[in-house]
Structure formats: C-alpha cells, structure tokens
Amino acid sequence: MMKKKKQNIGYLLIVTLLVLPIWTGKKFGHLDVEQIIFLMMSDKQGTTIDWPMIFSFFIFFVPIWLITLIVIRFNILDNFKITQKQFKYIIGFLLICTLFIYNYQFKITSFFKHNSEYSQLYENYYANPDSIKLTFPPKKRNLIYIYLESMEVNYDDIHIEGVDNSLIPHLKDIATKYTSFSHTDSFGGARQIKGTSWTAASLVAQTSGIPIQIDSFNVGFNEEMGFLPGVTTIGEILEKEGYRNYFLIGSDAKFGGRETYFKTHGNYEILDLKHYKDIGKLPSDYNIFWGYEDAKLFSYAKEELLEIAKSDSPFNFTMLTVDSHFTEGYTDLSCDFYFEEPYANAIYCSNRKVYDFVKWIQAQDFYENTTIILVGDHLTMNHKFTALMNNQDRRIYNAFINSDFKNFDFEYMINREFSVLDMFPTTLASLGVEIEGNRLGLGSNLMSNEKTLLEQMSIEELEEMISKKSIYYNMKFIE
Does the pLDDT at position 240 exceed 70? Predict the structure, then answer.
C-alpha cells in the first residue's frame, strides 16, 4: 500500500513537471532565467503569499491531477495494451519534450551560451558619472519620483468585455499636458530591454543607467554581499549636492535587495511596511496585498512630504506604487468597479489615485520648486491580460511635471527609441542639471540630440551585448 502511494505521488510529480511550462506560459509569457537567479540570490525577507497566484495554480492543476489518479486507479492504460516498459519510454520522451519547453520558456541554453562569450558594452558605451561634470542650478529643485507598478501606455487602448477602453485616461491626460517622451508622434513610451524587466532591476536601471546582469550563481544582490557596490547612482549624486533621499514603499523593502541598494547608494531613509509598523501607524500583523495598499501609501506620502518640506534642504522623495501589481492587482472600496476583470479595475483605480496625488502636490507651497516624475517600472507580467491590448508594441509609461529642462525642444520628445536606462540622465536634466556630453551610465539625456543606445543599434544587438559576460561590469560594479 505504501509503495502504491509513493508511485502515485511520483506520477503526480511527473505530470506536474510536464504541464508546468504550459501554466507558466499562460500566466507570465516568456521569462528570462536571470530574473529567477536574481530572486534566488537577493534578500528573501519581505516576501508575501500571493493567494491569487496559488489559487490559479490549483484551479489549473487539480483537474489534471484528478484525471491522472483516475487513469492510475482504473488501470485505463491497460486498455491500450501499453506495457510498463513502454510507459516508461513514453514518460521519458515527454520529459525530454518538457525540457525543450522549459528551455523555450526560460531561454536556458541562451543563458549558458552567452556566458561563454564576452561583451565590450561598458568599455565602449558606459559614461561614468564620477568622470562627468554635472552643473546644478543655484537653487536646487526638489524631486518626487513615482514608480508606477507595471504601468504601460498600452492600457490606453485595450479590448475588454467587447469594448475598446482606456484604463489610464488620467495618466494619459498628464502625459499629454506635460512633458512625456514617446516612440511615436503621439502618446508612447520606453521599450523594455533585458535586465530591466522586473521591479528591482528597473529601479537599478532608472537610478544608475545599467541593467542587472548575471553570469554566475555566486554573485549576491543582498545585504551580506552588497548590491552593486561599485556603481554610482542618482541617490549618491544628489546626496553630495545636499539632498535628503527617501524611499517610500508599500511592502518590506528588504525583498529583492531594495533596502540594501537604496541605503548604500544615497543613504535613503526607508519608509516601508516595517517602518510604519515600528512607529505604530500599522498593527504588527497588518498585511494587505504585498504589505499595505496604495490608499495608505499616498496618505503616508502626504504626511511625510509636508514634514520634509519644512526643511531648507532639497529632497528626493522616491516611491513605488503596488496596487497594479499582477496577477489581479488590488482594489479597495474607494475604487470604481467598472469592469468584471479585476486587474482592469486595479489599473483604472491606480490611474485615478496617482492623478489625485499629483493634484494634491500641485496645491502645496513646495510644488513651485519641485519636479514630479511618473514612470512605469516594467511591463505587466499578466500574460493573459496583455492579449487584450490592441497594440502589441508595448511601451512603458513616463511623464515629467514641472520640469526644468535647459534645452527644451518638442522634437526631442517624439519618435524616440529609448529604455528606462535613459531615465538616469534625463531625471537630472529635468532638475535643471547640465550634463557634460548628455550621457550617464548607459543612458542618454532624452531632452537633447544625444542618441540613445536603442537609436544607435537594434534592440536585438543591445540585448545580446547585455546577455554576454562583461569584465567591466563584474570588476567595477560588483567586486
């Protein structure tokens, strides 16, 4: 009996392994193995249980497990006169097929292939901020930088429940009214490139101008081993100029090494789930979605900003929203439930909350000398939802409000090919900073005639260079 149970469990595990790539593909589309390795090597604290994801997993697999058990229990395979030896061959063949599917899904062979090759990307294109003259205006501007979780411009034209809709009308209005960079002559945004496609990687790219590159399993992005200790970021640049840096987030900042990165690159004050529990604003057992919801995030942001603005020192207040995180996002009772699709409601509500928060900032005394930047961290990973988008050329949202670009020209804003790497110098330029050569890291100041890497080469060429080993990256940024 015990042997039979072990065999049944073995069969269920085999069937799960065989079918898992199908479920993964339906949920996430293609994933790079680097993202999985990064999560393995970075700090694990602060993770939460994604119940919708778990529910989706079981909804998909329980019928398959039941069918498998029925086949075993009633010896259905015997009706096909399949011997035990033949069955093992079939299982072996299916496992080989599964390995090919895993490779297709996660690009595993590509990862190992590129790890045997070297790239001169940084030697040829990296503009070291430590060697570039940055001229700040006499009166330094404040910066409020808001990362919008999974926010892409393609939400503006999406076919839901039989009708074409815009889920981000307020954000589109902001982008149209103020400064926004586009890949077309109308509403558009940044292309997502390799090494920037998850939150922590995008935070790094936008603040340092480099992607996350992984070519081994022994490099940490965590408190113990450090998080790119050799790179110079916008946080460090602003700190040297007398800025106070803050990072507000609705989850535990330790997850993915974010706390380590911001603390060691600009001495940011971390305002996360732990912080608000420690000071008694949240109960010790509070846990909504990834930590606490955006309704509280914006409320806390207002309180913090009013206090921070009392000082004479300039500030960089960086924050990350969370309600539009896949799989289904989060909606509270203040949201309008226009759609049957939960994720659509979460995106629409996030769009409204961000708009209301921007309006609140504009009503404050400190707004006159403050630049607000809204930018998506990456494209959504809700693969099922993206199929509803009418335009599959997907781009990341951006908007600059009350900016102080010295060389403002509308021609620089349209028909641009760019990535979030270009946010690093462009952010400084929006504060009125003159950048020698208009390049920092691998990024270019978009409000200039300096070509971006994506305007100098194809995305395939750039991603291939990012995929390969880099002696410069490992020696300068990691070791």
Answer: yes
| Interatomic CA distance for residues 150 and 199, integer angstroms | 9
Nearest to 470 by CA among 445, 479, 455, 232: 479
Separation of CA 112 from chain center: 24
HSE on the CB side for 186, CA within 13 Å? 5
What pLDDT, on the 0 to 100 scale, is given for residue 26? 61
Please say whether the beta carbons of 274 and 253 come within 8 A.
yes
pLDDT the model gives residue 255: 86
* Of 44-53, 100-109, 386-395, the least confident: 44-53
Q: How far apart are CA 44 and CA 39, in angstroms?
A: 8
291 torsion bin: left (phi>0), alpha (psi -120 to 50), beta (else): left
Q: Which pTM value belongs to this model?
A: 0.86
DSSP state of 118: B
H or E stretch covering 85: helix 84-106
Return the H-helix or E-strand segment holding 434: strand 434-435
When the pLDDT of each residue in the chain is averaged and rounded to a whole number, the result is 88
DSSP code string of 120-147: -HHHHH-B-GGGS-EE--SSPPEEEEEE
Question: Cβ neighbours of residue 347 under 8 Å, at least 6 residues apart?
Answer: 151, 155, 167, 168, 324, 329
Instruction: Say if residues 336 and 287 touch (Cβ distance below 8 Å).
Output: no
Q: What is the per-residue burial (b if ≥16 Cβ within 10 Å, else e) of 259-274?
A: bbbbbbbbebebbbbb
Contact 203, 256 (CB under 8 A): no
pLDDT of residue 17: 72
The 10s digit of each residue's pLDDT in 140-150 is: 999 999 999 99
Task: Report the distance separating Cα 169 and Cα 156, nearest Å.
Answer: 7
For strand 269-271 and strand 315-320, is the pairing parallel, antiparallel, or unpaired? unpaired
Please count the residues of the chain: 479
Q: What value does the mean pLDDT take over residues 34-38?
A: 71
